Amino acid sequence: MLKTILGTALALTATLTSQTALASSACTYTNLYQEMQQADPSSYAKIKAQADATVNGEGIFWRVSHEDDAHVSYIFGTMHKSDPRITTLAKNVETALLSSKTYAGELDWETTAYEMGLIMGKNPEMMFQQNGEKLSDQLDPHTVEVVDQLLNQRGSDFDQIDPMQPWLSASLLANSLCDIENGVSEFSFLDRVLEIKAREADLKVVGLETVEQQFRAINAIDETFFLKSLEDAAIQHEQGIFDDVLQTASELYVSEEIGAMLPLMMHYSHTLKDGEADLLSFQRELLDIRNEGMVEKAVALHEEGPSFIAVGALHLIGETGLVEGFRNAGYAVERVELQR
After folding, report:
1. Which residue, among 7, 6, 8, has the nearest Cα to 116 in the 3D structure?
2. What is the pTM of this model?
């Protein structure tokens, strides 16, 4: 079920994924959320109700201001994808970025490769299983076989992920065939595009987190969550909807219906249920706790001057998200309509 991927896994994704051009027919999918509205209206209504109840569940672009400040800052929700609809910036988003003094992403990508190298050297257990343990020992043989088929479609195979920690293995299945056709590269996804533009404009570039902090957050999540995510991937592949689920998430991002993303993923999960310990562990470690640190650093950056804060869109929503975090710190935060 893991469809939100930390950007740090993209470098490995690019390494393990074949860059051979796919036929255009590979990028075919069904928008499951739209289809559900007609085919399964009760499920659609349930997901929409959950989305509507999500604080700040709509919108990816927000203006931050304070009556005592002469400047404003912006919060922008990203998706770690190379889809041109996602990476092509709205006019007012680019204007806001270039009018800022500081750009803050989740990571400073100029140092990410170096940090990953240090972790692999000093703390390999964060990424790879130890003492000869393998992922295939933790999954049933049929799941291994089907996940191998998914990886084969993406230019890889199960042998390559077998020694990895479950979180990293699950993350490497976060790209649909459409994503691969668009090109999987550490330079092509939205967060990297934003950082490159910021550097070209001589903005100060900082990361709200380090790679090690992200890895430690992921390793704190119950690994059962990621094993179940791989099981879900196998089941969805056999149902013929694996790429549909991934692409529907992208469609929800493009339409700014962020609050519907997790409910939709849960609807198509066969192994995870709301309120289960492993799912709660995922939400707490990957979203709630990290949001707290991001808000603290983002507020400090705004106090220094106009800043452009870009983080994964799921970090914006909910009571612990960055939008509410700024409001709780005394700032006015208003949604800005995108100028396409």
Report:
1. 8
2. 0.92
For 64-107, where are the alpha helices, taking DSSP H only? 84-87, 91-98
What does each C-alpha distance from 136 to 1, 141, 223, 235 come to in angstroms? 18, 7, 14, 16
Q: Where are the domains of the chain?
A: 7-335
Write down the H helix ranges in the chain.
10-16, 32-39, 41-52, 84-87, 91-98, 109-122, 141-153, 158-161, 166-171, 177-182, 190-200, 211-219, 223-239, 242-254, 261-267, 277-282, 289-304, 322-328
- Within 10 angstroms of residue 124's Cβ, the number of other Cβ atoms is 12
Q: How confident is the chain (340 residues) per 10-residue block, as mean pLDDT?
A: 43 47 66 97 97 98 97 97 94 98 95 85 91 96 97 93 94 90 80 96 97 91 93 97 96 97 94 81 92 98 98 97 98 96
The single residue listed with the structure tokens 């190298």 is 117
Which structure tokens are listed for 172? Answer: 């490497």
CB 171 within 8 A of CB 9: yes
